[in-house]
Amino acid sequence: MNILTVIPARSGSKSLKDKNIKMLNGKPLMYYSINYSLKSNLVTDTLVSTDSKKYSNIAVSLGAQCPFLRPKSISGDLIQDYDFINHSLNEMENLKGYVYDFIILLRPTSPLRPNGLIEKGIDLLINDLEASSVRSMTKCSQHPYRNWKLENDGSVKSFFSIKEPYNLPRQLLPESFFQTGDIEIIRKSTILEGSVSGKKVLPILIDSESYVDIDSLNDFENASKILNDK
């Protein structure tokens, strides 16, 4: 198998300037995702997808590959995952001269991943040939049936078409999960179909207490405390 890890690290973070290279316990945030990929014997290539030469130099110093920059056209706030993953896949296959079987997405903002997620995810895909991708998830603390969306007239309405899902007894609520940013693994065939998830997604369950998604200074502080306690 040839497996490509893509670590997205664009430079234009609005919530926290230069978030992806901000120091967390003495190391740039992207280090934790790069190191996680490099430690896996299954990964063929570890790529950082960035639009910044500064970020690129840091990524290479940490052991990742960054032989090209992400075009500005796919580096904005509203760009979806498919755009930079497809770009990374095509560029790397052209450079390397071989094709990849799986693409792993590791977001720098989830630096505290449990061990073994890559191996567990690849194993799931190998053992279920109909599965198009896997992604990390945690059980929802608040059930989505209890959520409401705001309408243009100022009223609120359920997200779901079934009758009054918000009134269902707790015992009748289906089990629900929230996707985390720890890991996604995608078959190349799924990417070729224009998707990063496909028709059959398998979950890798994450303990909610170990899940951290960094988007603010408080998140950095919490992650630092967890790292210090390990």
- The structural domain count equals 2
Q: Could you name the ranges where pLDDT drops below 50 across 5 or more consecutive residues?
A: none
Query: Which architecture of the largest domain does the CATH hierarchy give at level 2?
Result: Alpha-Beta Complex
The ordered H/E elements are EEEHEHHEHEEEEHEH
Query: How many strand units?
Result: 10
CATH superfamily of the largest domain: Spore Coat Polysaccharide Biosynthesis Protein SpsA, Chain A
Q: Output the CATH topology of the largest domain.
A: Spore Coat Polysaccharide Biosynthesis Protein SpsA, Chain A
Query: What strand order characterises the main sheet?
Result: 4-1-5-9-6-10
Gyration radius, to the nearest Å? 19 Å
Q: Helical element count?
A: 6
Helix content class: 25-40%
CATH class of the largest domain reads Alpha Beta
Strand content: 15-25%
Average pLDDT taken over every residue: 93
Structural class: alpha/beta
- Major beta sheet, specifics? 6 strands, mixed
Features:
alpha/beta, six-stranded mixed sheet, Spore Coat Polysaccharide Biosynthesis Protein SpsA, Chain A, 230 residues, two-stranded antiparallel ribbon, 10 strands, 21% strand, single chain
Could you characterize what this model shows?
The protein has helices at 29-38, 53-61, 81-96, 117-127, 188-192, 217-229; strands at 3-8, 23-24, 27-28, 45-49, 102-105, 133-139, 148-150, 156-158, 177-187, 201-205. With 230 residues, the protein is of the alpha/beta class. A six-stranded mixed beta sheet has the order 4-1-5-9-6-10, sandwiched between helices. It is globular, with a radius of gyration of 19 Å. The protein has two domains: 3-140 and 179-229, Spore Coat Polysaccharide Biosynthesis Protein SpsA, Chain A (Alpha-Beta Complex); 141-175, no CATH class.
